């Protein structure tokens, strides 16, 4: 059996009991290490699980599935994924390849940012489409996610913004020369996401492309860091304020609320950066 | 500490290791027993956890939070919730009451239907707003969820339909007489949800209120039962076909796809009821 096992969001103990049993008995244990960052390191997992873990990078998963799945028709192989195996990042291609090879698979679900985001108090069924905010470069500044946020807000829905991470990025020079030399991993903090978003907001305002649901510098948004971990941080502040918060290490997420119920506002007030934000959360947004 | 512990979706072993540690050391362990149905019973949990579990019904949670949270300022109390504590059903009111009483709380996240639904192969970030389909009665047949599905489809988004469950329902007579006598629990199967939906589709067609994105009897939809459990079932069939599938015991969910990527269609084909559905999943929907 080929098991896709979700690790949840915090540390080694966020695996489910069922998942841990699979890890302990599996012939080989892989850790998907290119689309997310575990709050604890591979070593912490190895120590807690008492198993050697093989890091699986994108090349391995996409090009060496024979190797990855070897013997999983007769023995158990575990493929660990931070969060849920089919959460923010999907591994359906892996499932399809398993089925093609006649290998049985099973998914051991766990929390992912897509549902744990409920910890900020905004109700999951009031979230519309999630968006991704990527690192801008000097000449590539995509802003299409703004329109999705706008559509969600128009319908009163909240938006979860998944923030970019770059795990094994090659410089353009190394890429062109075919050198497998990678830049250090980096992740987008809430402050940078808010900054990029604020620039779009200002541009739209200058072009007078705004309406009553439009985001503004004083719209209350929610910044989250390390959701599910012991040192999780949640702050509610205006978009402008969030450009200067420091929420520490990865991973970060940003939520843009739509219409809020009183109970949702009550919850966000718990995380308000200051009294002016509490004030904004008392009046209807 | 007042712990809200997610149990995940399958059986007793779907709790996280961290959650299990809390359950084992808590002074009291409650199980929220009115918004969801655990695939295994309370007894199975008690046996596996080695702890007595107190069933918490709606009255208790909404009216007796003093009792529920007693001593949790100095000791650990665990409140177990099927899925994620802040998943399809929210318990933010409980958190607010804890904070009001000066009691610290912690959430132990887990999978919920809101993210585990990814098991059907449709990608989570392509889901729009989720909807609820409730039991129709002779004189109460709400259909507003249809418009939400239509809006999602117009934007190419998938829709997760959460299907009604009635856990401690009183008959109108008993309710009026103030008798706390409850009807047996019931849950909506995929077939009934599809039937209700098909009736709306036919009504809209008769009123000529349809467009190219409109749902039709031959739209491929996905029926799911007991997601995350060992005997989970997933079927892809036309809306019409789903009105006559029998997916067994609770809980069921229904997904109405929007625009599908080739990889998503490849996955759905794994669950196709018959070749005609596979055919529909080859052409673009």
UniProtKB/TrEMBL annotation, chains A, B:
Catalytic reaction(s) noted: 2-[(3S)-amino-3-carboxypropyl]-L-histidyl-[translation elongation factor 2] + 4 S-adenosyl-L-methionine = diphthine methyl ester-[translation elongation factor 2] + 4 S-adenosyl-L-homocysteine + 3 H(+)
SUPFAM superfamilies: Tetrapyrrole methylase
UniProt-listed Enzyme Commission number(s): 2.1.1.314
Gene Ontology molecular function terms on file: diphthine methyl ester synthase activity
Keyword Cell inner membrane: no
Family, as annotated: Belongs to the diphthine synthase family.
Residues noted as binding S-adenosyl-L-methionine in the record, renumbered to the chain: 9, 84, 87, 112-113, 163, 227, 252
Residue ranges constituting the Tetrapyrrole methylase domain according to the UniProt record: 1-242
One GO term of the biological process aspect: protein histidyl modification to diphthamide
Protein's UniProt keywords contain Methyltransferase: yes
Matching Pfam families: TP_methylase
Annotated function: S-adenosyl-L-methionine-dependent methyltransferase that catalyzes four methylations of the modified target histidine residue in translation elongation factor 2 (EF-2), to form an intermediate called diphthine methyl ester. The four successive methylation reactions represent the second step of diphthamide biosynthesis.
Annotated metabolic or biological route of this protein: Protein modification; peptidyl-diphthamide biosynthesis
Top-level taxon of origin: Eukaryota
Organism in which the protein naturally occurs: Littorina saxatilis
Protein name: diphthine methyl ester synthase
Swiss-Prot/TrEMBL keywords: Methyltransferase, S-adenosyl-L-methionine, Transferase
UniProt-listed CDD domains: DHP5_DphB (cd11647)
């Amino acid at each position: 059996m080929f098991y896709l096992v979700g690790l949840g969001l915090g540390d080694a103990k966020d695996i489910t009991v069922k998942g841990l049993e699979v890890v302990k008995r599996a012939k080989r244990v892989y850790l998907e290490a290119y689309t997310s960052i575990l709050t604890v390191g591979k070593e912490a997992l190895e120590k807690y699980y008492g198993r050697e873990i093989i890091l699986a990078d994108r090349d391995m998963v996409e090009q060496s599935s024979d190797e990855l799945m070897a013997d999983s028709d007769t023995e158990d192989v575990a493929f660990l994924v931070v969060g849920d195996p089919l959460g923010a990042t999907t591994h359906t291609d892996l499932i399809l390849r398993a089925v093609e090879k006649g290998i049985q698979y099973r998914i051991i679900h766990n929390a992912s940012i897509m549902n744990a985001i409920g910890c900020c108090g905004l109700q999951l069924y009031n979230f519309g489409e999630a968006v991704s905010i990527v690192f801008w470069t000097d000449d590539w500044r995509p802003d299409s996610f703004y329109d999705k946020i706008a559509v969600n807000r128009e319908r009163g829905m909240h938006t979860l913004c998944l923030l970019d991470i770059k795990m094994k990025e090659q410089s353009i020079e190394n890429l062109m020369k075919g050198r497998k030399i990678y830049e250090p991993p980096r992740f987008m903090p809430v402050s940078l996401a808010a900054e990029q978003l604020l620039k779009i907001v200002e541009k739209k305002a200058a072009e007078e492309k705004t309406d009553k649901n439009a985001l503004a510098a004083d719209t209350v948004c929610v910044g989250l860091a390390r959701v599910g971990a012991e040192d999780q941080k949640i702050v509610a502040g205006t978009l402008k304020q969030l450009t200067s918060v420091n929420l520490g290490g990865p991973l970060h997420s940003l939520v843009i609320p739509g219409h809020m119920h009183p109970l949702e506002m009550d919850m966000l007030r718990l995380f308000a950066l200051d009294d002016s934000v509490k004030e904004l959360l008392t009046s209807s947004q």
